[in-house]
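Database export, one record per block. Field names are fixed; values are copied verbatim from the stored entry.
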Amino acid sequence: MKLFVSLLVFALTAGAARAEPPRVITDIAPVHALVSQVMGDLGGPQILIGPNADPHHFQMKPSQARALSTADIAIWVGPSLTPGLAGVIADADATSVALASDDHAHDEGHADPHAWLDPDAAIAWLDRIAEELSGADPENAETYMQNSRAAQDRLRALSAKIDARFATLEDRQIVVLHDAYDAFADRFGITIAAALTDSDAHSPSAARVADVDRLLKAGKIRCWFGEVGKSDALLIAVSEGTETRAGVLDPTGAQIPPGPALYETLIRQMADTIHSCLAGASG
């Protein structure tokens, strides 16, 4: 009987001592989705920046600071997207995992703040996320790795389908509201002929508006795209009198329910929106 009690106490103690999955916090919904896929049933990350907030000008609220203070790991795109988070995360106890790097160059060789729009970048990020979670929680390392590989396989399959759809289009030139889509465009062979603004933080210059106006009036562009939550009044004005078609893109998944499926849905919907406009314009 004593032996049975001793074994029972040992088993209970060992179970109690078993490490729990790390508490993870993320910056934006696409990163939250990738981390959620890797964590699977082991836990769910928190998200700092809501769908209606601008990550470029994010300012921490007290409730968000409290959430960050309880996290073990903070997984975020990096200071190229959310410069306001850099100092806060550096001061926190959480391990910082900035996913974007200069490997995905944007302007002047700096990390592309919108690199998640390239599924190939997301595939690399899934590896990084799994490695970081495995280091913090070795007991569940195999689960993290398996979940990561499954998510990568789904993204490769999705990318292949998108490649096949765009391969049927001869003209892939578009105009966008602001310079945020290079990662997606480069991956899928889309040409961004112009962006009305270099950043959603600044109003377009008169010269830039005139350039886009001339481009659209020349009939060289079949489609332009606004963005969820941003005014497209100027693009509507400069495209008036042309046959240019319009669409709306959602680069952060603001209109998609948050969760593991958000990232793939975001990429699929962006491809559908661009392809439908270009295909319709050429028909």
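Remark 1: The first strand starts at residue 24 and ends at 26.
Remark 2: The radius of gyration is 22 Å.
End of record.
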